[in-house]
Predict the structure.
Amino acid sequence: MKGKTEKNEKGFTPPPEILQRVLGFKAIEHKDGKIFIWGLGGSFIPYPTTIFLLRLLEKEFGQEKAANIFYTIGKIQGAQTFELITKKFGYAKTIREKSNLLRFNQGQSDVAGNGHIEWKIIDFEKNFFSAKGATPYAQEYLKLFGLQKNGVDFFMVGQAAGIIESVTNKKMNAFETQCVACGKQFCEAIVFSSDKKSKFSKYPNYREFKEIDLNKLGSLIEPRLAYLH
């Protein structure tokens, strides 16, 4: 099994390979009232809380600024958790190794409870990638606020861009082509190299995100190192 779920003869769907390793290696710890996965601390936050936070930001500052915030947070989390997992299981050098590593790492969303996301297109020669899945955040947004005209899965889009930036070491952009909150069956993020922006800006649902410089927040720890600290 290469980083994706596969049904056995009885119809049972095993968890993604990466999640199996998390469970098998007892990587989840609970200590001093905190939860850690491979040393990275986190907490259980119900989906409605996250969606209410997004909706509040949209109402207070407009959807564009709210989208940029969630995109930026998703991007840094995607990149740094990818680095964390890669350090545990080894880096990839060839295109084939990188493709397999991406498929293995696609389970990080499952581990974090962010939904099952699969890489449908992996093209390192053209620097073009597509990630697809029904995320719980888009599902929750639809349930709470009804059908939307535009996609709302800004975090997932940023996460996909961050992961690809990490594995390619190139600046990447991303946008959502379809969203569960818009009545679609899946959410889909297209990731492409930043120098191809003029080509992809012609897509019907194209949205250009403005990534926020987290280094200007005044953090005592460099933002990207906060996930590895």
Summary: The beta strands are 28-31, 34-37, 40-42, 118-123, 128-133, 172-178, 187-193. Confidence is low (pLDDT under 50) at residues 1-10.
